[in-house]
Structures are given as structure tokens and as C-alpha cells.
């Protein structure tokens, strides 16, 4: 074990020391500190000490989520009713809330050396997110505690480091204890960790703050406020040069200011700017250069977008002067088979999938990862960013309410200051229906929080998601503290409340899937209703069976469900029928599709949840049902739809608001091709075909990216399909697939879309659901190729190769 550690140190020195040397000669350096940690699940005395022996601990790289990992076998005598499989435990404390996964306590330790060249610099460790309640030590010295699992934090290591050849030890204890989350949160250091080296006089963390008071096609004014940290013994004469670069790196504006001030306010003018929008997510870069005596002592680069926001209570939301209806979906910090681990590519892929499904904005219950927001900026997805699920009064015994009074200002401040330069973020939310809503205490808390937010960022409006169930006027005090009233599941209140308070701007911050038509038509018809967020856009673990059985069931009735099953996209990112119906409502993408009601329910108990959808599937493969009628639903944005079976006309039906853009037929089953044809006037405009699949014959593997970076972090998602001899996916095939990997990569995770599977996410095998499953490859640190082979009994095997490069593909 000691030899492995020395090898890791040597590798670290070869890779990192050249960067460190450059940093010393230049300004600041930020090093990703994710590799070569040691991990122990559980608690142990003395693990914070520098001399503690951790040689038998498991080696892990970050991001890391231990709750997605396989649990050890159940000890004998633990009870016949208890079931443990993969990461799932039928008696998990979080139960339905966390999808029967387990939290607990864990320790992380990292050994590293600090070169003598680091002396005299400020050296900080930054954590993007640890779930939850973490304590950090350096060389046995306690640096602090951070309870909240979703906000960033950092500590200064400078005074406690040993420089030269002596080893330093960073220790982190994580305590995800009790019942503290209403959904799957994951456990551990699940986001990146960074080591930051700066001069004693430097540009402050999360600085500068950039706004665009004027953003018009003919010209824009860019306000840049930069705060300086001075840890030197005395004030210093400084100058700050700020330049704005376009996407090609060309300077389009520049200004410079001098003095001893610790705050610089600068305004720059950009002629004929490219305005940021979901359709054209153009980004600029602000380069800040801090100089002393003519020498650059710090330099930062900040991405931002030039865009204008206007929220009009009579006419709605305007982005860059154009009316935009917010097509929103709610999301959680969940990457399916990877759990909560926030790999950059996993976060980027979520944004790609959401954009492709037609969403132009998303809302979560907490601050997302930096990688997610950076992808939203780059790809063009707006964000309503929310701070908390609870305030003073808790929803669960061990949730954030235990820390709210002491920590809310620090956590909210960290979220706002970190994320206020993201053009994708257009709204701040103070919370998700808080237990004290409708009370004087709730209104007072909202006023205090809103005032604090405006002191940090006065450019974005403030909202909160408040559920139905309250007397409408009881919420007026809390709503008065907000800029936009967030209505959850309250479409019956829009018109009446607008008549009572015509200056109130309303946003449907949460709505049920089953009522998608009614909610969206309200947005279309009511100008003061600026948009709607469906629960949910992308499926997630936790709140198990919400979209099938709804709430109110005992854990014993729900297990082995682990997934909510309410998403437009399933847990793997595959689109579900309700997503294609939303295409029709939004006039987006595939505006015609056809589905068959299953002859028997997909799962036990009726699927009648308001967060669910009809039990339909895009399949025309029903052996054993020949001659029996099956209900076929067609979703259509066109005036009329014709359905044919093997070329025979089954009739022409209208699709419009009067039919909720749906048409239905009863069709006696026979194998072949079922085709829906959409017409506007007499012209055929679209077709959708369902074709009967033959017997399963082979496995087909498709990579979402055939080239990835050889950085030990990048991912390629492989869709594995069971297909017939003609390459048609068999929509009912459930077969165990076994995987093997060769080359410069590993199998990071496997998953299927079955919401009540308790298979492992980390073993090299997975059972298909609806004829497919997913495998996720992760690169090593070396360039080369990764070959994934999939095998299933009785089928021709499938294979795919992915290249890994040192340079970005």
C-alpha cells in the first residue's frame, strides 16, 4: 500500500509541479484536487489526525457518492423481512424519501506535499458541495464545520501547511445522519474540490460582480464591481484593468482604475453586442488584472452574458425585449446511475437532454453544481435557482431547519455571490413550500431574506414556491415580500387572485404531469402568468413511486421502488410519452406521436397519481393479443390525424384545443405497421410509425460521444438495445446483459429505466427494461481507446469503441 502511495505522489508531482511553478511566477492558480483520496465508510476515532494510519482505506477519486454504492450483505439474524440488494435497504432510515438508499457517516483523507515555492502565498481549499454536515481538518487542526449539503465553502490552509518534503494530510468527516432529505441526496464529497493559490493582495472570491444595466442590439453598458482582499500589513496602491473579450478572444472594451480602494466600480460599453438567449447563448469573458507597482499580482477570467430581463404584471416576461413564456421543469441534483456525483459531463448531459425535450428553464430545490450552471450558460437553458426546502420549521426530524437560524445568511450569500454572473440564472427562489407559509413568522422571514438577496443582487426578481392548501389571503404577507408570486398546484387561484391584486405577477412554480394541458393553456391565455414548471422534467431517485402510487403509502408497500417515476425524461434520460405530448403543447420538436395503452398494468396497484401519466408505450408488439382491441392515443399539433394499420385506413380525426390535441382509436391487434399521419388542411405534414418487432436477435450499442477527454473524469453514455434481426428494438425485452471493458477506461455505472429495480449500479451487468439499458464509461488519465462489449444469452453480442484524447474533443 505504501508503494502505491509513493507512486501517486510521484505522478502528482510530474503532472502538477509544472503548473505550480508557473503559478508562482505568475498570478493565481486553481488546481483540481479530486484525485487520490482515501475513504472509509463509517466512523472511527482519531481519523482527523495527521499520523492516523489510513493505508487500508479504499482509494477513491472525486466526485464520490457512497449512497449509490453496493451495501454489504445483511448479517444473519437481522430479520427475515429485511432486503438488501445493490445500494438498497428495505429498512433504510430515509425509506421512500431517499429511495431506500442509506446515508450514514464517512471519512475522506488526502495526503499531499506543499512545495517550498508555495510559501508566502494564500492557499485555500474550496469544496463545491459535501452532503452533508462536514468537518475539515488539516494536519490535525480543525478548520470548521459546514452543515448544508448544497452550498460551496472554503478554508485557508496557509498557516497550517508543512512545506517541503514533509507530508500534509487533509481529513474530512461527513455525517449524513438521520432523516434529513425528502429525496435522494447522495452522501459524501459529491462535487469537485479545488486548491487555490493566490497572493496576499488579490481579487476576492466570487468577484467581480457583473451586471448589464443596458443590453440592446445597438449597444450595452456592462457594470463590473470588483472587491479586493488585502492580507498584507498595510494598504497598497493598486490598479485594476478590466477587459471584455468576445467569444473569439478579441477585446471589445477595456478600462482601468487606480487607488487604494478595496472596491472598484467600473462601467464598460460594448457596441453592437451579441445578446444571450436560449436560442443564442453567446458568452463574453471579463478579464480582471490587478497590478501593484506595474506588476500583475492577480488575474481572473469571468464568463458572463449580455441580456436584459423585464417582468411586466400585465404583459409577462420579456428577454431582450421579446416576450417569452417560461416552459419549465423541476429537477433534482441526480445523475441517475451515478447518484449525486456531479461529473462535469453528467451535468452537461442533463442540460442537453432538457433542452432537446423543449424546456427553456429549470427549477431545483437547492443551489446546483457550478458545472450544471456553466452548461446552462453555454447551451442556453434558463434557471430559477432555489435556496432551501425548509426554513425555521422542519419537514423531517434532521433536515436543514436545525441549522437555518445560524446558517441561512451564509448559505444564501454563498449561492447568490457564486452564481450572480451566470446569464442563465434569471430568478432567485427563497424556498419550497415552507411549513411556516401563511404565518406572520413566514412573512417576516421572507422580508428579511429578500432584503438580503437584493443587497447582493438587485437585478433579478425574487420568488418562492408556495403550495395550495392555504387560504389565499393568508399568503399575501409572504407574497408581498417577493417580486413574483410562485403558485404550486393552484391553477384555480390565478384569475381570482389577479382580479383581487392586478399588479401581482404569477408563476406556476410547480404543477402535476397529468394536468399538463390545463396548466399550459393557462399560460397561453393569461398574460400575467409568465410560465409553468412541471413536476418533474427529469426523473430522480427518492419520493419512490410518486408518479405511479402517489403519496401516503407505507414503506413496505412501496419497496422495491426507488425512483419517483414522474419525469418527462426517465432516470436514464430517455424520453417518456408525456415528453412528446409536451412537444405538441409547446409546438416543439416531434409534434406527432402515437402510443398504446398496455393491456395490463405495468406495475402492481393502479397508476393513477397526479404526478404520473397514462400507462402507455410506443409499442406495436403484443404477441398473444391478436384480434383483441387495444386503445391507441395520438398526440398531435396538427389539425387532423389519420391512423392506418398495414396500409388500411382506420379513420381521420380532429386534434385541437377542443380535443386537448389528442385522438383515440380502438384497434384490434395484428402485427405490422401502425402509422399516424398528421394533416394541416389537405397536406400531409408528419408521420409517426410503430412497427412490430421480431424475436430478440442481437445487442446494439450506441455511444453518445465517440471521443472523450483522457482526464480521469470524462464520460461516454452507451445506450444498449435488444434488437430483432432488422435492428428494431424489442420494446418488451427484459434480458440480463453482462459487460466487459478493455483499454483506457472503466465502467463507471450501469442502469435501466425500471423504477422498481434493486440491481446494482456498479456491477458489470444489468437487466434491460423496455428493451434497453445504459452503460457509462469513464476515461482514465491516459489517451487511447476504450472497448465495451455487451453479451446476453441467446443474442449476438454488441460492442462499441470510444477514443480518449488529452486535448478536448
Question: What does this protein look like?
Answer:
The chain is of the alpha+beta class and 809 residues long. The protein has 5 domains: 2-198, Jelly Rolls, CATH 2.60.120; 203-304, Immunoglobulins (Immunoglobulin-like, Sandwich), CATH 2.60.40; 320-538, TIM Barrel (Alpha-Beta Barrel), CATH 3.20.20.80; 592-618 and 622-691, Sandwich (Immunoglobulin-like); 698-805, Immunoglobulin-like (Sandwich), CATH 2.60.40.10. The protein has 11 helices and 49 strands. Strands 28-27-26-25-24-32-31-30-29 form a 9-stranded parallel beta sheet, covered by helices on one side. Strands 3-2-6-11-8-9 form a 6-stranded antiparallel beta sheet, with no helix packed on it. The chain has a 5-stranded mixed beta sheet with strand order 42-49-48-44-46, with no helix packed on it. Helix 2 (344-356) packs across helix 3 (370-379).
Q: Whole-Å distance between the termini?
A: 35 Å
Low-confidence runs? 1-26
Secondary-structure content class: alpha+beta
Give me the number of helical elements: 11
Number of domains: 5
Question: How can the largest sheet be summarized?
Answer: 9 strands, parallel
The Rg value, from CA coordinates, equals 28 Å
Strand content: 35-45%
Mean pLDDT: 94
Shape call:
globular
Strand order of the largest sheet: 28-27-26-25-24-32-31-30-29
Q: What name goes with the CATH superfamily of the largest domain? A: Glycosidases
CATH topology of the largest domain: TIM Barrel
Q: Architecture of the largest domain in CATH?
A: Alpha-Beta Barrel
Q: In CATH's first tier, which class of the largest domain applies?
A: Alpha Beta
> Would you count the extended β strands for me?
49
- Proportion in helices: 10-25%
